[in-house]
Design goal:
Layout lengths: L7 E2 L11 H18 L2 H14 L7 E4 L5 H4 L11 H16 L9 E5 L1 E3 L8 E4 L6 E4 L5 H4 L8 E3 H15 L4 E5 L5 E2 L1 H9 L1 H10 L1 H25 L38 E4 L9 H16 L4 E4 L9 H7 L3 E6 L5 H8 L4 E4 L4 H4 L5 H14 L4 E6 L10 H18 L1
Parallel strand pairs: 1-3, 2-14, 3-8, 9-10, 10-11, 11-12, 12-13, 13-14
Antiparallel strand pairs: 4-7, 5-6
Helix pairs in contact: 1-4, 7-9, 8-9, 9-10, 14-15
Length: about 425
């Protein structure tokens, strides 16, 4: 669950420079524009519609375009004018771009997030990564070749820097605090990605072999990953570093907006607990693993974590057709499920019905390939809305890491998807 795109700052240097008069003026002017946008009635309308969808009482399908890596083309570094608080400026400019060019259902709020300064450390063994000069994939050499290597793994030394966080917040308050509501944001995604972490240590191919050749060792490793993630979140809960993720500015892992009045729980006293939050479960690395082995080696280790949260969002790019029964049976607070481009949309509609949010993720290649195909994109959404007509639907375009330097593509897609969603409501 990554917060809403452009809703805050992901990090700056620990020793913040003084902000000169010119940069202060730039940031404050941008913040005023964001505040004006946030005050528009349509923002509250959008938030209300997401809240209804998450309550499984939708008025219509919801639409969200999350540019993700494509932001580098929509608001490039060359557009920034500040030299010190560039992360602040990027955040504000992205939100203004969204309002002006991405006409979807993403609410824009008068908030500005400052991330807690947290160093999660490592396990003592780190993979060696090899990347090309171009943006994209990479390969790595996993360090755990044997059980003896695994025995060298140690718990991560997680460090929460309260002083650095306070300094960052003070800068944001000084520059923007009278215009936007500055708030500290700690762990708000709570991503149960045990296989992602283990794959970097052990290797994807080797984990597949381990399921047959060395299952007890794989169980041992997965149990350790589960316990380490639980220790991390319990530390955050104890230290007050968890943050509510139920607002209109929060994004679920599968892509929709998290807004709900079901969280935090009724006994909430201001100290955020796991049970006051959404969490996001996924295991894209085991997309090709059958249901039985998925439960044995993945889901049973995710469940103790996910079931500590108030609501659960599951799935990312992996097809879940043959695993939906397991998710529904074992996750009592499951609320939304990703239906990826490689999923059987009909099976997902039958399994999810109107009891869960059906988060459809269209194929991003339609608008990210060298030659965009908007006819195919529209046809895909029309088909999906027909297939899932009895479901609680959101259409979320993400995994868009380039628009081929044609920003108008995201504008065109958002307007097209919004038009189709509005037609469905009539």
């Amino acid at each position: 669950m990554a917060g809403a795109a452009g809703s805050g700052v992901q990090g700056q240097g620990l020793n913040m420079p003084r902000v000169d008069v010119r940069e202060r003026r730039i940031l404050r002017d941008l913040a005023k524009r964001v505040a004006d946008v946030a005050a528009l009635p349509i923002q509250a309308e959008r938030a209300c519609l997401w809240r209804k969808l998450n309550a499984l009482e939708p008025e219509r399908p919801m639409v969200l375009a999350n540019p993700q890596g494509g932001w580098r083309e929509l608001v490039p570094e060359t557009a920034l004018q500040c030299q010190s608080l560039r992360g602040f400026e990027m955040s504000l400019r992205q939100r203004i771009f969204r309002h002006e060019h991405i006409h979807d259902d993403c609410p824009i709020t008068a908030t500005f997030n400052v991330r807690w300064a947290i160093d999660v450390g490592d396990y003592g063994l780190i993979e060696t990564q090899t990347r090309s000069e171009e943006l994209g994939s990479y390969k790595w050499d996993p360090p755990v070749k044997s059980q003896a290597d695994w025995d060298r793994i140690h718990p991560r030394a997680i460090h929460i820097d309260h002083e650095a966080t306070a300094r960052m917040e003070a800068v944001a308050q000084d520059v923007l605090g009278d215009i936007l509501r500055v708030q500290r944001i700690g762990e708000s995604t709570c991503r149960v990605k045990l296989t992602r972490d283990l794959v970097h240590l052990r290797g994807l191919d080797q984990i597949m072999f381990d399921m047959y050749d060395n299952p007890q060792f794989l169980h041992r490793m997965m149990a350790a990953m589960r316990d380490e993630k639980q220790r991390e979140w319990e530390l955050y809960e104890q230290e007050g570093v968890l943050s509510l993720n139920n607002g209109p500015e929060n994004i679920t892992g599968s892509g929709g907006v998290c807004h709900t009045d079901e969280l935090p729980l009724a006994d909430f006293d201001g100290h955020v607990r796991m049970k006051d939050m959404w969490c996001w479960g996924e295991s894209q690395e085991t997309a090709g693993v059958g249901p039985d082995q998925f439960f044995e080696f993945v889901l049973q280790y995710q469940l103790p974590l996910m079931n500590r949260f108030g609501l659960v969002d599951y799935g990312c790019c992996e097809p879940l057709d043959k695993k939906l029964d397991l998710l529904i049976r074992h996750i009592p607070r499951l609320r939304s499920v990703a239906v990826s481009p490689w999923s059987n949309r009909q099976v997902a509609a039958e399994k999810l019905g109107n009891r869960y949010v059906y988060v459809y993720k269209p194929n991003p290649s339609r608008i990210c390939s060298p030659k965009a195909d908007f006819e195919a994109a529209e046809r895909e959404i029309r088909e999906t809305l027909q297939i899932a007509r009895a479901c609680c639907v959101s259409i979320v375009m993400k995994d868009t890491h380039t628009f081929m330097n044609e920003p108008e593509r995201v504008t065109r897609w958002a307007e097209m998807a919004s038009r189709l969603a509005a037609e469905t409501a009539r």
